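Data availability (excerpt). All sequences and predicted token strings are deposited with the supplementary files. A representative entry, Glycerophosphodiester phosphodiesterase, is shown inline so that the format can be inspected without opening the archive.
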Amino acid sequence: MRVIGHRGTPTCPLHPENTVAAVRAALEAGADGVEVDVQATADGVLVLSHDRDLGRVLGTGAGTGPVVARTPSVTLGALDLPNGTAVPTLTEVLDLAAASGAHVLTEVKPEAGGRDARRTAGLLAALLAGRRRRRPGADRVTTTSFDLVTAASLAGYGTVSGALIVPAHQDPERSALRARARGLTDVHLSPVHVRRDPGVVPRIRALGLLVGVGVLDDPAEAAGLADRDVHLVCTDDPAGMVRALAPAPVG
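Structure token line:
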């Protein structure tokens, strides 16, 4: 079961989420990969940001920072984030991950879909297709979205897979059937789904889909998911999860 750092390693106070430093810290801690949030700038550059604007990451409060989709990439790149970090491009993160063969989950924002998400997804598809032509086999990417239309538009562009993220309030099996019908290969469930119905993972696996779970920080619960054929767990504490799930030394 792969361990994936959610937004890199957000529980580490030294590294703001969705930065190169956060991604590097997760990979150096032994995580198999990272999940990052992707948005397009005003001039069509893909950068990492979870929120619509950067106020929360800058420390000035949500809604007070530059709006990613309305700001040029050079302006965002010049911002000083905490601890000397900066807003990275997706290309930077993909190159870093490719150097070690790490897995990258690219989540298109906003979660609800819409015009900005469609624009970001189109740019992401073009970027991934171009990288595949120039460096075949270098990237290990799963494209993801909470929005089925957005996720389906990226089916086949991820070099590993394409996933629909299913929020806790939605029916996981119905969502899985819709995902499969739209050409997706994975569904990523909330921990709530598997706590409520332990049999949901094997039923979805029987549909021919892979199953990820996140966000989950309890190593004991994660170990139980591995026994149910979950193929990845996304966690806010990748370093702790890697340590907890490491096989016991022999002898």
